[in-house]
Amino acid sequence: MSATLTAAPPVRYPPGDLAIWIFILAELAVFAIFFASYAFARMGDVAMFNEYQATLDKGVALINTLTLITSSYFVVRALAAIREDQRKTSVRWLLAALAMGALFLVVKSAEYVHHFGEGVRLSSNTFYMFYLSLTFFHFLHVVLGMVILAAVALKTHQGAYSASEHTGMETGGVYWHMVDLVWLILFPLVYVMR
Amino acid sequence: MNTVMKTQTAMRPCTRVYLLLVVLTLVTFAVGYFDLLSGNRALFLSLLVLGLALIKGQLIGDFFMGLKGVRGPWRFVILLWLLIPGTLITIAFTLAG
To answer: Is residue A96 within 8 angstroms of chain B, CB to CB?
Structure first.
């Protein structure tokens, strides 16, 4: 994707439908407010945030981060394949990306089950309130992203996209990359930084 | 043959970016896992980890979202977004000590 774009003359607008970029910017603005709120709320009780942050499993967060990065990479490969009119290959990459997304949901759900089993609730303390609401808000975006990717995979299978027309796949792809992008900030902020 | 070569050439930068993202993620994890964020270097390393996250975000924007090939204001939209929460988080963590 990138090499194709960088080799070509610069274009005025980003890949995909411009409407999805407006939607993405709105989503990113909400997450930015969430992130800043977390950081400034932490100032009120740094010791408490650090104490409960230590209860989170960084290994699980690592798996989830690698899962989303890999999934994003698979979407890039799917787009590269359709640009070469390799429809079946493109569908396979999209299905692989969906599998990675499903893995993320399974791992994250297991993490929630563990925390709820330990008695963690939104009302437990400010750290857990941010942790649960931030990560669940992102979780919902992963679900939406998977629905979009599944629709793109189905349309690709049906022959709706080709080397000359694949705007729909680009649109779905950039949304999925946004989901990945948000997690790349969320991971260090909530799980690592102290 | 020509098509295959074109595909392989096109994918190399993205594959390199993917591997770089993995390495930077492992570095972030290692900093947290080995509890390097204690004592007087906690703030420095926290901001370093944040910096790595911002670099990763820009790589996603440029190479995965395809903004590297875009000119005009859209070219920098992800960078701008990264700088806003990045700056606010830096201020909050610095003030918190």
So the answer is: no
